[in-house]
Amino acid sequence: MRIAILDYENAVPSSVAGPADILASIMRTSPLLTGSPASVRFDIDFIMEKDNQLWRKTKGTAVPVRLRKQEIYDLVIVPAMESDKIQLVLQRERRLIDWLRQQHLQRAELASICVGAFLLGATGLLNGKVATTHWLFVDRFRAMYPEVEVQDDKIIVDQGSIYTCGGAFSFTTFMMYLVEKFCGHEMAIIASKILMINMHQQPQDAFTIFRLQHDHTDDMISKAQQFIEKNYADAISIEALAVQYNMSIRHFIRRFEQATGNTPLAYLQRVRIEAAKKMLETSQEGVEQIAFRCGYEDMSFFRKIFKRYVAMTPKAYKDKYGRNGLRLVTASMAS
User: Fold this and answer.
1) What is the pLDDT of residues 199-221, one digit of tens each?
2) C-alpha angle with apex 279: 278 to 283, nearest 5 degrees?
3) What are the residue ranges of helices labelled H in 83-237?
4) Residue 181, phi then psi, degrees to nearest 5
């Protein structure tokens, strides 16, 4: 397989070198387990722009050479970029954006990592398709590319010949997915074991941090939000909130959703769940006590709402991110 990895200015180094290292490692080490060379050979080039020309540098070599128009790749990987440089990269890398379009027309498959989806989105090739990106930048992506359906709960979205993955180091799992897709399940299992990378797709919901949505100009709704954020542990009636701010219930719900993107009830639930997550991470209290402190008396309902927003149970979250969970990991590493 001929694989190209874009190496543009302001690309995140780990998502440039990381995929190449994973693929090269598979070729080096799979014979140790199987006794024979890997079933697929990966020829990896890094593609960059310099002096208004596109250049390629083969992995393991130091000197780039000019990229010829007839060079066609099987897969092109678009790495993440520094998140504060998104607009700059999109303005500067027009040549690479055009090259991605040309490669796809010549049947190359495209894969973006994290906010590399913004560069892939600029090609127009995601229009009418489904994609994902880092959960922190989903709103910005939707605003810039309204013709793309964003599934922000997914870590990997496969559209047949275009792939996108979620944030940061999820690219390691993403590479296992691509290895399985192109090289078969057996090779992916071998790679997973050699590199100790999980193959499962845990939803991004497990990593999401809910951000309080005050970036609007509706002062009355902002006051209602602040009331919810301060009193989330109490029994809050949406009807009583509407009366408190001199609105009908229907008008209050509509205005709240227009300002925040959530209904008042959904906002209350998300504030409560975010508070519960922090308590599960730091407190020695049990799940039932934490649920009660966050305004939930019905444990089954709490578990249902928690799993809806976090994609795991409260206990599983506490085991993974709580203080005891971290101590267990540390102890396991030490032993």
Assistant:
1) 655 555 555 556 677 878 899 99
2) 130
3) 86-92, 94-105, 117-121, 138-144, 171-183, 185-195, 219-231
4) -65, -45
At position 83, the amino acid (one-letter code) is: S
Give pairs for 172-175: CB < 8 Å, separation 24+.
172/18, 172/22, 172/197, 173/197, 173/198, 173/199, 173/200, 173/201, 174/111, 174/113, 175/18, 175/19, 175/22, 175/23
**Strands, E, within the chain: which ranges?**
2-6, 43-50, 53-58, 65-66, 75-78, 109-112, 130-131, 149-150, 156-158, 162-165
Cβ–Cβ < 8 Å for 201, 151 = no
CA distance linking residue 278 with residue 232, whole number of Å = 14
Q: Across residues 161-175, what is the average pLDDT?
A: 87
CA gap 279, 287 in Å, rounded: 9
* CA 42 – CA 187 distance, rounded (Å): 13
pLDDT (average), residues 131-149: 93
Structure confidence at residue 326 (pLDDT): 43
What are the CA-CA distances from residue 162 to residues 67, 87, 115, 165, 194 (Å)?
23, 22, 15, 10, 27
Q: What span, in angstroms and rounded, lies between the C-alpha atoms of 245 and 273?
A: 25
Top pLDDT among 208 and 158 is at: 158
Pair 270, 225: CB distance under 8 Å: no
Asked if residues 119 and 93 have their Cβ atoms less than 8 Å apart, the reply is yes
Q: Please write the tens of the pLDDT for every residue from 243-289.
A: 999 999 999 999 999 998 889 999 999 999 989 988 998 888 999 99
Neighbours of 226 (CB within 10 A): 12
Strand order in the sheet with 53-58: 65-66, 53-58, 43-50, 2-6, 75-78, 109-112, 162-165, 156-158
Tokens of 113: 């990592």
Is the whole model's pTM more than 0.70, yes or no? no
Asked if residues 311 and 304 have their Cβ atoms less than 8 Å apart, the reply is: no
